[in-house]
Amino acid sequence: MSLSAALNTAVIGLQTLQSQTRIAAGNVSNAQNPEYTRKLATLTTPVAEGLPQSALISSVTRAVAPEIQQDFYSSNADYGRLQMQLGYSKELAEALDATNTTGDQPTILAMMTRFEDAWKQLEATPENNDFKSLVVQRGNELATEIRRLNGLQSELQNRAQQNIQTDIEAINNATSKIAELNRKIASLAAAGTPVGDLEDMRDAEIKRLSDKVGIRTLENDRGEVFVYTTGGVQLVGTTAQKFEYVEIANPPTHPQAGIYLEGSSTDVTGGFLNGSTRASLNYLDVTPTALASSDPNVGALAKFFNQLDAFAANLVDVVNNAYGGPFFDYTAPVGTPPDEAGLITVESSITLDPSTLDANVAGAVQQAMRNTTMTNAQVNRAGDPNGLVVANVNIFGVANGILSYQARSTADNELQRDSAERLQHTLDQKYRNITGVNIDDELAQLQLLQNNYAALANVMNTITQMFDTLVNIGR
Length: 475
Fold this sequence. Notes:
Elements: H1 3-29, E1 39-44, E2 47-48, E3 51-52, E4 56-62, H2 66-95, H3 107-124, H4 129-150, H5 153-190, H6 196-212, E5 215-219, E6 225-229, E7 234-236, E8 243-246, E9 258-261, H7 275-284, H8 288-292, H9 300-323, E10 328-331, E11 343-346, H10 348-352, H11 362-371, H12 376-379, H13 395-435, H14 439-474
Antiparallel strand pairs: 1-4, 2-3, 5-6, 6-7, 8-9, 10-11
Helix pairs in contact: 1-14, 2-6, 2-7, 2-13, 3-4, 3-11, 5-6, 5-7, 9-11, 9-13
C-alpha cells in the first residue's frame, strides 16, 4: 500500500470514528429521555485491490423490541380503560358516600336512621306536635337527598361525554402526527438519511394513542407504520383517519350516538374495544344488553339511577302502605337512564301542616321499615335490571345493597387498575432495558473509540514523518 493510500485510509478511519463518537455522545445525552431509543452504527469494510480498507458506517439504526412494544401498547390500553373506570366508579360511590372512611354511617343510611328514630319518638309521645314536625323534617331531608342524587344525572353524563370528546380530539391529533411522520420517514429513508429520531417521535405518538384505544401496528418496507384498533378500525394508513363523537342520534346521518368517521354516517363505535374511550362508552351505554350485563362498569350510569329509582319507589311503598295513605309523593322517572322527573317529596298537606300527621300509625311505619321484605323483582322495578341481586331484605337492606354494590365496584376497579399499572410498568421497563441507553456501555464505547482515534492519529503522524523524510531526501 502506498503512503498516500495509507494516509487516505487513516483519514477515512478518523471520520468514521468521529461519526461513531457523535452517535455515542447522542446516546449519553439522551439517557434520561424515556422517548429515546439507543442508536447503533453498522460498519462495513470495503475492499480495494484485494485489500481491506478503512471501515465505513453503512447505516445508523435504533434498538427495537417490536413484540414487547406491542405488549406494552396492549397493557397501556388496559390501564387507560381501568383508570377511567375507576374514576367513574369512585365518582358514583362518593356521591353516595359509600366509601367514607370516617366510621360514620353513609349519608343516606344516616338520614334513614334519623327518619326512623323520629317515628319512634312520635310513637312514644303521639300527642307531641314537635315530634310530628320532626318526622316531617326528617322525611323532607331524606327526600331532598334522594332528589339531589337524582339531579346528578346530567352532570355525570355531560362529564363522561366530554371525556369522550377529549379522547377523540387526542386520537385525531395523534393520528395526524403519525401520518406526517410516516411521510417524512419514508422520504428520508429512501434517500439514505438516518431516521431513528423521527421513529422515536412516532413511537411516542403511538404510545399516547394506545392509552385512548387498544391498537396494533404494521410496518411496511418503506418504514411507514399503519395503525389499527384491536377492533379492526384503521386509524392511520396512507393518511390519518379523523373521527367525531356524536352525543345524540341524528337520523339518517347519525342513527345513534357513538363514534363516527368524520363527516360520514359510518359508525365505528364497535371497533373501539379498549382504552379510556371504551371505559366512557361502557359507562354511558343504555342498551338492554348493557343493563343486563353482570359487569358493573357496563351501563354503570344507567344502573346507578335505576338503583336509586328502585330504592325511592320501594321506600315510598313501604312508608305509604304502613301509613295507610300518602306520606311521600313520588313521580316515577321516564326514560333509560331515568331522567330527572323521578322526584320524591313529603305529601304537600303534611308539609304545610305537620299537626295533621297521623301519629297513631307511627309504630307501624317504623316497624315496616325494619320488617317489610322485598323480592329481587321488587328491587329491579318493572323488570329493569340495575345490577342489584338482593332478596328478602327491608328498605335498609336495599340501601345497603346499593352502597355495597358501588363500594365493591370501586374496590374491584382499583385492584384491577393497580394490577394493570404494575404490568404496564414491567413491560415498559423491559422495553427500556432492551432499547434504552446504558451509560456504562456507552462510556466504554467512547473509551474504545478514543483509543482507536489515538492509534489512527499516531498512524497519520508516522506517515507525515515519512513524507517529510522522502521530501528531504529529494532535496
